[in-house]
Design brief:
Blueprint lengths: L1 E7 L10 H9 L3 E3 L10 H15 L9 E10 L2 H12 L20
Parallel strand pairs: 1-2, 1-3
């Protein structure tokens, strides 16, 4: 089973632009999700991509079948994606990220 990180992109910076970050996290054993949504602030696309992965986790013919550690799902966002993080875990009650046991925003402060 693998932990999951959902990365919510910033304005004008699609998920494909974060390739190095995705690969780095994957090298540590994470399943890393992102997308090409130009308007991530709602959190809807983050919820949708995670919902897709969780569906694939249950589908016997999927490469993700029973590979997702549902107790270790995190989310992080850049710029507009930061707003999307908060909306995904607070506002979007019927969506998957709101129901995660351990979904809490991570914070990085620099002096």
């Amino acid at each position: 089973m693998f932990p999951v990180v959902v990365l919510v992109n910033g304005t004008g910076v699609y998920g494909s632009k974060y390739k190095a970050l995705f690969e780095h996290l994957a090298s540590w054993g994470f399943l890393v999700l992102g997308n090409e949504d130009p308007s991530t602030c709602s959190g809807n696309s983050a919820d949708a991509v995670l919902a897709y992965l969780l569906e694939e986790n249950e589908r016997a013919d999927s490469i993700f079948y029973q590979k997702v550690d549902r107790n270790n799902i995190g989310i992080s966002g850049h710029s507009q994606g930061g707003i999307g993080v908060f909306n995904a875990v607070t506002v979007n009650a019927p969506f998957p990220l709101n129901r995660c046991k351990k979904c809490t925003p991570s914070w990085t402060f620099q002096k």
